[in-house]
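Progress note, sequence design subtask.
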């Protein structure tokens, strides 16, 4: 993803904005804070947070549940935890030159 962010920085004009949709998750009970990680990477690449929108994920075809023991995606019948209960729309603005 960092390579994508570097390309965003290259092609955006100063003041240009980008939007990234990402969900946090957990794997084997360990939280993975993808949104925070992406923001940190982008800030190091001379972007600043313009807005962050958090919303519940609407019904999708993608797997939405995991088995806590294995961390694998599972059907709703055999799962015990939501894989992506909500998502973040991160809007970042390019700073500087």
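Output:
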């Amino acid at each position: 993803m960092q390579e994508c962010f570097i390309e965003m920085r290259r092609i955006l004009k100063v003041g240009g904005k980008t939007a990234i949709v990402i969900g946090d998750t957990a794997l084997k009970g360990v939280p993975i804070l993808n949104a925070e990680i992406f923001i940190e990477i982008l800030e190091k690449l001379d972007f600043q947070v313009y807005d962050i929108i958090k919303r519940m994920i609407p019904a999708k075809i993608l797997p939405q549940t995991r088995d806590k023991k294995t961390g694998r995606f599972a059907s709703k019948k055999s799962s015990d935890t939501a894989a992506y209960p909500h998502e973040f729309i991160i809007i970042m603005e390019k700073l500087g030159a």
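The mean pLDDT is 82. Work on this subtask will continue into the next period as scheduled.
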